[in-house]
Amino acid sequence: MSTTTETAEPRRRVTLWQRLPVVHQLRQSVGLQRGMLIAGLIITGIFLLTAIFAPLIAPYGFSQLRDADGVSFGAQVPPGGAHLLGTTVGGYDVLSRVIWGSQTALGVIVVAVVLSIFAGVILGLISGYIGGWLDRVLVVIADAVFAFPTLLLAIVAAIAISGGQSSLFGGILAAAISITVVYIPQYFRVIRAETVRIKSEAYVESAKVVGSSTGRIMFRHVLRNATRTLPLLFTLNSSEAILTLAGLGFLGFGIQPTAAAEWGYDLNRSISDVTSGIWWTSVFPGLAIVLVVLGITLVGESLNDLADPRLRTRRKASAVPAPTAETSAVLEGTDPNS
Amino acid sequence: MTSASKKRVLGAFAGTAVFALALAGCAASGGDTGGDTSSDSLIVGTTDKVTFIDPAGSYDNGSFAIMNQVYPFLLNSPQGTSDVEPDIAVSAEYTSPTEYTVVLKDGLKFANGHDLTSSDVVFSFERQLTIADENGPSVLLGNIDKVEATDDKTVVFTLKNGDDQTFAQILSSPAAPIVDEEVFSATEVTPDADIVAGNAFAGQYVITSYDFNNLVSFEANPEYQGVLGAAKTKNIDLKYYTDAANLKLDVQEGNIDVAHRSLSATDVADLQGNDNVNVVVGPGGEIRYIVFNFNTQPYGATTAEADPAKALAVRQAVADLVDRQEISDQVYKGTYLPLYSYVPDGLTGATQVLKDLYGDGNGGPDADKAAAVLADAGVTTPVALNLQYNPDHYGESSGDEYALVKSQLEASGLFTVNLQSTEWVTYSKDRTADLYPAYQLGWFPDYSDADNYLTPFFTTNNFLANHYDNQEVNQLIVDQATEQDPATRQSDIEEIQAKVAADLSTVPLLQGSQIAVTGKDVTGAVLDGSFKFRYGSLVKG
Amino acid sequence: MTTTATTALGPTGSAPAARRPRGGGGGLLRFIIVRFLLIFPTIFILVTMVFVLMRSIGDPITASLGGRLTADQLAERIHSAGYDRPIIVQYVEYIGQIFTGNFGTAISDGRPVLQLLVTYGGATLELAFYALIVAFIVGIPLGMLAAYLRDKWPDAVLRVFAILCYATPVFFAGLLLKLVFSVWLKVLPVAGRASTRTELNMSKLGDRRTGIYLIDAIQLGSPAAIGDVLQHAVLPGLALGLLTAGVFLRLVRTNVIGTLSMDYVDAARSRGVSEYRLVRRHAYKPALVPIITVIGLQIAMLLGGAVLTETTFEWKGLGFKLAEYLTARDFVAVQGIVTLLAVIVALSNFIVDVIAALIDPRVRY
To answer: B75 and B55, same structural domain?
Structure first.
């Protein structure tokens, strides 16, 4: 989609693909923009570290109800003492649930994003490059899936995929796959559009003339250039994955507490706590969701700004009179959060 | 950029903000829509859902709650008891072992002016059996062979099995509201709109306005002459909620006068400490229990190491270890109470037999006893137990409840519990397909009689399909159902509970309480063993 | 939601560039016709998808009676209802019905699906309307402000605000809003669309009821009723509206900045036109074009996607009912509602694409 910077510097794009871009853009950024990027990176970093080291950080297990001596925690215990953030209505330790919840969230993000990228990118590439009837059919299907209310598709998919079972990996997988189903069309659309555009670029044409095979052209030339927008898409879909997971949990179609800690579920169970003046069971998982989505989105937006000369802080004008910032145009509409 | 221009821009934004605030303020000051709430009307809130107000088309709490206000019954329980008396009848009794004869009162009328005669009664039951809707309660009428009117006021029910002691209760059940034959269809479920338009009501109230699952308005019915007496409050509005937290907030803030079914345990506990409302608690008919599949449980009949004695020891150990009081306190905050038998407290014949047989003898758990039981039977510990529960049918606390059960069983070191949950539709199919060795289930009674907690559960072809089969129990259940002498029947019922408690086909855990929350100035909310909540006794002010 | 919506690309406008050689024949009319015809396969695919998915997650009979009946009794009832027939037979039957305009009757509560759509569609439409108002009032001026104060601290604050709007799950926001405005300040109602008294008065309207409460209240001619309805609309409107406002804010900011850096704006600037005038006159209008098209999409999404908002605030609309019917495994109702949503979404995408094509000829294919 983007018509912003693709023509210049093929070398830089290689490094971009090699995941140097965040560093590159961090150096490229200045002022507030840099501040936002750094803030986003820090929040995201804390989230990642928490998720990875959850077993070490969390004082208790996510489904632990008694301490080592077999004494029950008790339900809705206020913050303080052995339970820094109190306990939930079910008698779980809030702090531990919040920390373990990051692991579930990360698991779902990773599985969902990896699956959507693979399926979406391959389909988009093939559809865009080969074109014709296949392309048309795929576009129509993608549009149809796109038009399906996100959360409802996720609910139905979650039930269908798990067969109704809620287990540790089953639950994560079901949530992730259901989110994937929703997001494949987005990746598909971005990559397809990029592919269609790049296909007619000079260097692809010349590769054809030289006699490169279709597969080689697709993967060597087109894919490498078409995936340039993926990091941005990636951050956006990560945050949407978290919100969809929380929405599923909130509506009662998510992961059960004994299978894994999940923020949406905890929030759902805390509704009546809030109205009874028990604030700690909802505020912390709620904040966790808000913070993680905030962090990831800050990174995503900053990357987007920096990729777009008109939005980049340093200079004002640019020679690119492009249709406005198409880089990120693809994501409107799906709304796990409404 | 000049500072002046900047100010203008900022001013424009500020203006927008003020406008937005003004809008909000204006809306806020819109205030009450006038009119003080005089004592001839009050608002009831519920999270129940209605399907149909036609008795032939629905078999659920929400629909029955409405039917109880607007339809009369041949027999009904006066407030405060679960025992039935003639409602719009003057007498109802067995005139021969297979003939149950009901004589109606004189001059009964529907609110629309139509006469209520024996022909309407026959019509009401025959249409249930004819329509036999898949969502309807006609299954309750399985014992009826035929219904005949012998004169304008007399109806004779001919039964397949004589002396059915539950039949009087069935005549007050969801299958038995009396409807107007001139309004209802004989062959299909009648749409709500037709019923309301036809004003085909003869209970304490009539429905004057019906907004499906949103708002129902009732008005006292002057024609009602039944056992419940005339309604005390003229107008009742019934408002439907989906989120219990919203219901709680509205009753707490005085926006509604009564909240009935279902507030969360946390809400109830909070409201109990609130001076603006009264929390009314009554015995509930709802029970929760763990079912054991006699084939697939550890050492079950179809497992590799089948051994009935060891299997029994496993069930007994579970019964020894569960701490019902802890579940009741921690998860349900007293809105569910410990249940120590199969027939819940409040019904004739209920015992507490499991309290004596298992645990510390006082209802508490006893890990040593459980360890001894398992050791005596030669069971190697820890026993691996697959326990299933359902998160979306028995309330959102099920997950907490079973997490606690798991933790109680494992704390002893005697069990390792693999706890799993499955959504309701799959769960319902899988549980009868021998997939779950031990699983959660709940029950809400069709009518207030001990039989309803025995026959469906412990006869050979029970709905649990857990392969429990005890011919003695079977025979006793058949006996009590037709036993004419109340004292003998009660001792039969007690004996059944003792025998099943020894076998432990299921381990009963909890009994629900009925809870209603009313504004401080509202009286007359009665929650009794009939499990019917009548608006007719509510008074405000 | 659309954190990043920037251009007019609707779902179907996915590939504006170079689908056909530029300037190729056909022109606008041809584009519109082709684009219109594409609506039908979209709807068809959705209907098929929802049909297959719903059959794969269980039947309504087990959902309602699974805890009371034996397996044999259940199987018998399922058989008599015909749900055990081959799925293809049921599918052909359903498609046949749809073509005759018969959406069937909801299984779980026996309401005709068309009636459901009318009853609950109005509520959803109304909520979407309020949400859009909030989104406009909050999103557009703040977006312009952010662009105007670009890279200064208010800009950063506004951008973080926009992200927060999007990052806060609507049920969490709803909870906090209720706590503050209903429980502490006691100025706004907890939930619902109107107070009991107002709803009772409205029921007197009979056939003139539209299901859109604001209109009904106006029909009643009672200022109290109108106030009551508006009062109930504030919190849900805010919760859903802020979500959308975050999107608008970002969209407006990006587009205004984009146009501010255009050559002609630079030219104006060099002529000494004030920055305020630049924003108002030169940057505002061009920036609004993509916004309008995004709004088209937002409407479709608001109609279909507001499940969580409607659930949190007892707003008895389509999304709310859809979740309810899903739990009951009521295929007929779910299929009907999703089909309607599909039609709405497909139509608004079509309109958006046509507008985009009118504005920017390159989009045509």
So the answer is: yes
DSSP A204-220: HHHHHHHT--HHHIIII
pTM of the model: 0.81
With an 8 Å Cβ cutoff, is A333 touching chain C? yes
Q: How many CB atoms within 10 Å of residue A56?
A: 7
Q: CATH number, domain at B34?
A: 3.40.190.10
Evaluate whether residue B204 is within a structural domain: yes
Residue with tokens 């015992």: B351
- Convert the pLDDT of each residue in A218-266 to its tens digit: 777 777 776 666 777 788 788 888 888 888 888 877 788 888 889 999 9
CB contacts of C226 in chain B (<8 Å) are 30
Same domain, B278 and B393: no
Q: B490 and B522 share a domain?
A: no
Q: For residue A200, give how far its alpha carbon lies from the nearest alpha carbon of chain B (Å).
A: 44
ipTM above 0.95, yes or no: no
Where are chain A's structural domains? 19-313
The verdict on a CB contact (< 8 Å) between A91 and B264 is no
Cα–Cα distances in angstroms (integers) from residue B360 to residues B166, B300, B494, in the given order? 36, 27, 22
By Cβ distance, the residue of B248, B269, B426 closest to A164 is B426
Distance, CA of C232 to CA of A60 (rounded, Å): 43
- A116-151, pLDDT tens digit by residue? 888 888 888 888 888 888 888 888 888 777 767 677
CATH fold, domain A19-313, is MetI-like fold (1.10.3720)
| Distance of residue C131 Cα from the nearest chain B Cα, in angstroms | 13
B360 and B404, same domain (yes or no): yes
Q: CA-to-CA distance for C249 and C183, rounded, in angstroms?
A: 30
Determine whether the interchain pair A251/C153 forms a contact, defined as Cβ–Cβ distance below 8 Å.
no
Any idea what DSSP says for residue B327? Answer: I
Measured in whole angstroms, the distance separating CA B459 from the mean position of its chain's CA atoms is 22
Closest residue to A326, CB basis, from C7, C19, C306: C7
Which residue range(s) make up the domain with B121?
Answer: 9-282+516-540
List chains adjacent to chain C, taking adjacency as at least 3 C-beta pairs closer than 8 Å.
A, B
Same domain membership, residue B177 and residue B39 = yes
Residue with tokens 């329509």, as numbered in its chain:
B131
Same domain assignment for residues B319 and B379? yes
**Is residue B258 domain-shared with residue B314, that is, in the same domain?**
no
Q: How far apart are CA A80 and CA A86, in angstroms?
A: 6
